[in-house]
Amino acid sequence: MEKIVNKEAEESKREYWNTFSSFYEDTAELVTLQSSMMLYSITQSRNKSRICEVANGCGLAIRMFVGQLMKEGAYMFTSDISDLMNEIFVKRFGEADFAKNEKVKLTSLEETESVDVNKLVSDLGDGVTKKVFNIRASNESLPYPDACFDLYISSLSMMIVDNHHNQLSEAYRVLEEGGTAGFTVWGRKENSSFFTFFPKVCKEAGIELDTPARTNFHLGVDKEALVADVKKAGFKSAKAYYTQINPNFGSPEDYFKFYVGAPGFAPAYEKLNDEEKTKLKETFDIKFEEEFGLESETGTEWEILVVLATK
Ligand SMILES: C[S@@+](CC[C@H](N)C(=O)[O-])C[C@H]1O[C@@H](n2cnc3c(N)ncnc32)[C@H](O)[C@@H]1O
């Protein structure tokens, strides 16, 4: 079946994620690290030599991977649709201790539809033993040749792309026979109080939030259906696991700052008048204390769905 990519939808995702790149680094990246570490662990990433990671975000997890898990002699291509995510990725990589080691090199590539992976890797020579490349690209149309990777990683991006079937078919295409893919997506709403808490508070404070046409739970809701999609893309095996990751921002103030700045809520919050903002904060403080305060034995929970697949 021919792959059709909605370029307009991609452009708006790029803008959206550009807007939230710094915020993401300040607040979310330490939480989503849990998802990335799960993927690096279950995919046996330290034994792989030709790695593709998509939707790199600001890159905290990838820096940890390169520093501690990446095999000597391995190469890794990373990509994100957002220019500003990639900008932060490159800046932070350059600031990392390992960047002072001349055996580790990050190359930032110009956007192109066709990357000559073998040439780029061999041009760096044998002196560089950890070769990392970064490029602006969509998960739905990767610029790499067929079958050039033994590992493909996608942490918390497949539920965001416009068409996840395109992402799956690209993951399949760029992997060699026997290659491993690891994906995480949001899990089920009922097990993700981290995301359901704030809409509940808004409702109680009498604040209407826009209902998105599709929420980030849309793939995690049905594990079997997602596994069927992975197999339909050609993968010969796929296993899926629900698991919790546990966000903790510490103080209620930091939670509030996160919620009102988060991509899903910030636009609605900005439209509120001062009175509505005060009412929202007061309601939030009461509800937070009730559900997650010092007396409570429950923290905020976020369920993810992990998929491990073999080509
Ligand atoms: C929730 S963040 C995950 C980032 C990182 N993988 C992590 O686990 O922290 C989603 C990322 O997907 C990127 N993204 C959104 N749509 C994309 C697409 N179609 N292709 C590539 N990246 C995309 C965003 O720019 C953002 O960096």
From TrEMBL:
<dbReference type="GO" id="GO:0008757">
    <property type="term" value="F:S-adenosylmethionine-dependent methyltransferase activity"/>
</dbReference>
<protein>
    <recommendedName>
        <fullName>Methyltransferase type 11 domain-containing protein</fullName>
    </recommendedName>
</protein>
<dbReference type="InterPro" id="IPR029063">
    <property type="entry name" value="SAM-dependent_MTases_sf"/>
</dbReference>
<feature type="domain" description="Methyltransferase type 11">
    <location>
        <begin position="135"/>
        <end position="180"/>
    </location>
</feature>
<dbReference type="Pfam" id="PF08241">
    <property type="entry name" value="Methyltransf_11"/>
</dbReference>
<dbReference type="InterPro" id="IPR013216">
    <property type="entry name" value="Methyltransf_11"/>
</dbReference>
